[in-house]
Amino acid sequence: MDINIDVTNITIETDRLLLRPWKEADLNDFYEYASVDGVGEMAGWKHHDSIEISKKILKSFISQKNVFAIVYKENNKAIGSIGIHKSWANDDEAFKNLKAKEIGYVLAKEYWGKGLMPETVNAVINLCFDKFKLDALTICHFNTNRQSKRVIEKCGFKFVKHSKYYAEQLQLTFADMQYILINE
Q1: pLDDT digits (tens, 9 = 90+) for 84-113
Q2: CB-based contacts of 178: which residues, under 8 Å, 6+ apart?
Q3: Who is most buried in 17, 112, 135, 161, counting CB within 10 A?
Q4: Which pLDDT does position 173 carry in this prediction?
Q5: Does domain 12-182 have CATH number 3.40.630.30?
């Protein structure tokens, strides 16, 4: 069962990060990481080839109110995003009665391998279970994305099934792995 989540007035602080709503002033930081070849492609979207594309997507993040900017406290720079979206479980017979959302994330390439994404995902798990009282969270990764697989496993998600995901921007179909974390 899908519910609306609005992160407009929410800020989460972790040891190294601030998760906060996106602002128009974040445009240059967003374009800087989203324009790097390979960053978006790991999540099914083409890296941005103009700042105008970043501007359009940033406006959608702000208006949809369900995506946090991941800000590195050391330099106060937006280095990624994490969104709380409609879940595949909402349409799955086994899970459709659960209040569930899906987490999706991306991180600037220069920050990969530093443990920042598990820190981010765990903070959003706590928010979703404690504040929004969700029954479950889901998450997915392409079979080839080993970094996301490690994050997902570190955060306690359990594998449910293989699926196919058509990435419209890339015009490619990926083998996808779907996971769930039940709020105990």
Answers
A1: 999 999 989 989 899 999 999 999 999 999
A2: 88, 138, 139, 140, 159, 160, 161, 162, 163
A3: 17
A4: 66
A5: yes
Q: Which two tokens stand for residue 72?
A: 């590195």
CA 22 to chain centroid = 13
Q: Which residues make beta-bridge pairs with 70?
A: 19, 80
For the chain, give every domain's residue range.
12-182
Strand order in the sheet with 172-182: 12-13, 17-21, 67-72, 77-86, 100-107, 136-142, 172-182, 158-167
d(CA 155, CA 151): 6
Per the prediction, the chain carries an average pLDDT of 89
Query: How do beta strands 100-107 and 136-142 pair?
Result: parallel
Taking residues 127-135, what's their average pLDDT? 96
Rounded CA-CA distance 21/49 in Å is 24
The values of phi and psi at residue 121, to 5°, are -60, -45
pLDDT above 90 covers what percent of the chain? 66
pTM: 0.91
